[in-house]
Write a structure and sequence with these properties.
The chain has a domain at 20-122: Methane Monooxygenase Hydroxylase, Chain G, domain 1, CATH 1.20.58. The chain contains 3 helices and no strands. It has helices at residues 16-61, 68-87, 93-122. 15% of the residues are buried. It comes from Hibiscus sabdariffa (roselle). This is BAG domain-containing protein. Keywords: Chaperone.
């Protein structure tokens, strides 16, 4: 069918350009797989942290007082995951997954920030209490000692 006669000898040669293309494609696939693994690892950590966010959200909505340190620590942990996501060099469909996880981190942090504010309002006597009494300072400068005077 191809025009090769019976008992003909064929010499097969490998094209160096196709070998190079195959090698480049394998490296690209390896980079994409590494990116997917890193994003999946961050995603699993985000699942755990999102559960903690929802637990804090339930506590605050039920009127319970959550220590501010706990909220701040959780925000820091979420920001660490955001930094890990930023370090991932994604290509192809991994970019969409990376962006999805980044938005997820952002939503959790925003939720915690609003909870931190509402939790602060729920605590009577905690935080800064605004007053209308101002401290009064003497407008005259304090007397200088003899050794402070420069000529």
């Amino acid at each position: 069918m191809c025009g090769v006669r019976d008992r003909s000898k064929l010499v097969l040669m490998e094209d160096p350009a196709s070998t190079e293309r195959r090698f480049i494609q394998m490296r690209r696939n390896a980079k994409i797989q590494i990116a997917h693994r890193a994003i999946n690892h961050v995603s699993m950590e985000l699942d755990k942290l999102a559960d903690q966010v929802s637990a804090i959200e339930k506590s605050v909505s039920n009127g319970a007082k959550v220590p501010e340190v706990q909220i701040t620590t959780l925000i820091e942990m979420l920001m660490r995951q955001a930094i890990k996501l930023d370090d991932v060099a994604a290509e192809g469909d991994a970019v969409a997954e990376k962006n999805l996880q980044s938005k997820r981190v952002q939503r959790c942090v925003e939720t915690l920030e609003t909870l931190k504010i509402s939790n602060g309002r729920a605590k009577p006597g905690a935080g800064v209490i605004p007053t209308t009494q101002w401290e009064k300072f003497d407008p005259s400068p304090p007397a200088m000692a003899q050794w402070e005077i420069f000529d």
